[in-house]
Description:
mainly alpha
Amino acid sequence: xxxxxxxxxxxxxxxxxxxxxxxxxxxxxxxxxxxxxxxxxxxxxxxxxxxxxxxxxxxxxxxxxxxxxxxxxxxxxxxxxxxxxxxxxxxxxxxxxxxxxxxxxxxxxxxxxxxxxxxxxxxxxxxxxxxxxxxxxxxxxxxxxxxxxxxxxxxxxxxxxxxxxxxxxxxxxxxxxxxx
Length: 180
């Protein structure tokens, strides 16, 4: 039995150590299992005694056994509750140990998971930035004037046709003029 199980011990902070908690919960399970077996034996004893108890005026056969079982049910119900409670308490002690072990493992792995998540987010942002940059460069190169015509030629200097009419696109407004 661990030292934390002593009656006067009020400091339960050592339970935060997984090994201490495991020992403590195993001790609790042992106590609950001992109580469980005691309650089950008591239940069996009472069940046998009460169901075999014959009261004057009971019917015979199946109806008589039903009457005895009905009377016994009121006494056996609290004992069955004790049995169920001890089973649940032993199971809860096991669940506590498993849940805390999972929690300790989660907390230990959390910093690495967060670093991996931040790295993945950074990679996604870089990929999105590269894609946007590539798209911007492609759009800019498509909108740039071709090098075949001189921009200061007499045709485009003011008296010639508009850039959209000549096929040359110099800005976004020229795209709309060309489409319309």
